[in-house]
Write a structure and sequence with these properties.
The complex is a heterodimer. Chain A is of the alpha/beta class. Chain A has helices at 32-39, 101-115, 138-157, 175-180, 199-206, 216-223, 225-231, 242-253, 261-278, 284-290, 304-314, and strands spanning 46-48, 73-80, 83-90, 123-128, 161-166, 185-189, 236-238. Chain A has a domain at 32-194 and 234-258: 2-enoyl-CoA Hydratase, Chain A, domain 1, CATH 3.90.226.10. Chain A is 37% helix and 12% strand. In chain A, strands 1-2-3-4-5-6-7 form a seven-stranded mixed sheet, sandwiched between helices. The model of chain B has no long low-confidence stretch (mean pLDDT 95). The chains are: A alpha/beta, B alpha/beta.
Chain lengths: 322, 247
């Protein structure tokens, strides 16, 4: 028995990076640029305002932190199965992918562009990997998140499809979770975590009785990808490599979801029903049982194909309104 | 000012408001004009410093949707004196990000369908609750006692491992991270500050008269003009232009 082996309820260890095929190396372990390379058609990515432009954060130096030439946000254009798409990828290895002034503004600009593109090219993919607002420039990051949400919903009202891909090391927390909720479709892997307040922050604010952040199995089943997919917090489930995210994204692009009154009313019904049905459950196991999972304790260890079958059996299309 | 004082100053006796659990409030007021019919203003609120969880966000979203479905395209005023998002395991388990996002979306939908949406920040507000309410409106106004924040300095000190003393020092020279109304004004988040010494109804009428013009302003352009975010607007413009160049 290996002491470092994952305990029950924790996702399988991500595959090691360095595999020669970028489509098959672990999404969780990859850098933002590796993810883009594996996701898009080979060699099709072209970056906008790349690191050579040296648009650094103007704020980090006063905190004694080294800035990054891309500020942890890579934006550009590429092709996905031949179709032109805009892409934005957060680099979770740089300050936890946190949103600062420049980082946020790059995504705002891209979202404003997608709104006025030709109808057949109105698609944007966001590869999330973020803990939320960057505290060293908290006010700028907070307002940037609001600007991103406004720009997303204007673009979606104009017919753009915006997909979120979540499976990175930093997960998708804080304002990142709210941005994700504004996407027209979300793809999550088992390793992907989605939330607002991270477990560590809940524990430090409310005590270990409220949330034991050291209990990894509890963390994964509360905010992890399988739970999010089961309750309808994500529309598709991917395995931990680019090829799987890629095929899920190609499929979801075929299902446009315009932002309007009808879809907002449908989302409201979906969220109200979730609260009525699951609002008094005290653990993900209880929630999964109510959703009809025969043996909830098996879900964390369930291989992807079996999990996908389970999801298909339990869910109806209405859950997807967002 | 208290919510009651604010409502009296805005609408005189012509308002009715119900308060619910968790600091929630909803109702409507009639804004009088010198000539012509009064403007019906729909009200929602998150008050008493309450934290915003899944239940509160859904209830407020329901109110906004009802106003939108009534089809009057009248102004929606959001009164805010809140805490942050509710920090609990239950809220996260149920998908708090979707509930907060949904509330923000109902306000943005209302705006897209022609409702002037106005936030009135008269107390605190922080983090996810601030984004889902105040920052989800088109125009945010504030009273001088407003206390917007992302995070308080002691918590920030814990997380950034910088001493509280150093953070206080830095806070006096840069608006970019420290809590406070003046800093959020510089960021472009707050459009204008209202004067509690003068009747609020006149200030609201003036805002509504110029609403079309006010709502054209982008937050990042305002921030550039005020000197709070010097790079954001220019970066966004460059990315937008280059993305459209050969796309």
């Amino acid at each position: 028995m290996n002491e470092a082996a994952p305990q029950g309820g924790e996702p399988a260890a991500p595959r090691r990076t360095g595999a020669r095929d970028p489509q098959l190396s672990s999404w969780f372990e990859s850098t933002a640029r590796q993810r883009l390379a594996g996701l898009l058609d080979g060699g099709s990515f072209s970056e906008i305002l790349g690191p050579e432009q040296r648009e650094l954060s103007p704020h980090l130096r006063q905190f004694g932190l080294p800035p990054a030439f891309d500020d942890g946000m890579i934006v550009g254009r590429g092709r996905l199965a031949g179709r032109t798409v805009l892409v934005a990828a957060q680099e979770g290895r740089f300050l936890g992918g946190a949103v600062g002034e420049v980082h946020g503004a790059k995504l705002v600009g891209l979202l404003r562009a997608v709104r006025s593109m030709a109808a057949d090219a109105r698609a944007l993919l966001i590869l999330f990997d973020t803990g939320g607002v960057r505290l060293q420039e908290a006010n700028a990051g907070e307002v940037a998140i609001a600007e991103i949400m406004h720009a997303m919903l204007q673009a979606r009202a104009a017919g753009a499809t915006i997909l979120g891909l979540i499976g990175g090391r930093a997960g998708c927390f804080g304002g990142g979770g709210l941005i994700a909720a504004c996407c027209s479709g979300l793809i999550v892997s088992e390793q992907g975590r989605i939330g607002v307040t991270g477990p560590e922050v809940i524990e430090s604010n409310q005590g270990v009785e409220e949330f034991d952040a050291a209990d990894r199995a509890l963390v994964w089943r509360t905010v992890g990808g399988k739970h999010r997919r089961l309750i309808g917090g994500a529309d598709a489930f991917a395995e931990d490599h680019a090829e799987s995210f890629r095929s899920a994204a190609i499929a979801l692009l075929e299902r446009p979801c315009r932002f309007d009154l009808e879809v907002t009313v449908a989302e409201h019904a979906r969220l109200r029903e979730r609260l009525a049905r699951l609002g008094d459950a005290d653990d993900a196991w209880a929630i999964w049982a109510r959703l009809g999972v025969a043996d909830p304790t098996r879900v964390p260890d369930m291989p992807a194909p079996e999990f996908l079958e389970l999801v298909a059996r339990l869910q109806d299309e209405r859950r997807d309104a967002r | 000012m208290t919510p009651a004082e604010i409502l009296d100053s805005l609408f005189g006796r012509s308002h009715r408001v119900e308060s619910g659990a968790g600091g929630l409030l909803h109702g409507e007021g009639l804004l009088a004009h010198a000539a012509g019919p009064a403007t019906r203003v729909s009200l929602i609120g998150l008050t008493q410093g309450a934290a915003l969880g899944v239940d509160g966000a859904l209830a407020l979203a329901q109110r906004v949707l009802s106003v939108v479905q009534a089809g009057e395209r009248n102004p929606i005023l959001v009164l805010i004196d809140s805490g942050s998002q509710r920090m609990s395991r239950r809220d996260e388990l149920l998908g708090l990000n979707e509930y907060l996002g949904h509330l923000a979306k109902t306000l943005m939908l209302a705006e897209q369908l022609g409702h002037p949406t106005i936030g009135l920040l008269y107390g605190g507000s922080a983090a996810g609750a601030f984004i889902a309410t105040a920052l989800a409106t088109r125009v945010l106004v504030a009273l001088p006692e407003a206390r917007p924040a992302v995070m308080d300095l002691p918590s920030m000190s814990r997380i950034t491992k910088l001493s509280l003393e150093l953070l206080r020092d830095m806070a006096s020279s840069t608006p970019v991270f420290a809590p406070g109304l003046a800093n959020m004004e510089l960021m472009g988040a707050v459009t204008e500050r209202w004067d509690p010494g003068r009747p609020l109804d006149a200030q609201l009428r003036r805002l509504l008269d110029r609403f079309a013009e006010r709502s054209q302003e982008r937050r990042d352009q305002r921030a550039a003009a005020r000197g709070g975010r010097l790079k954001a607007a220019a970066i966004a413009e460059r990315v937008e232009r280059e993305a459209l160049r050969d796309g």
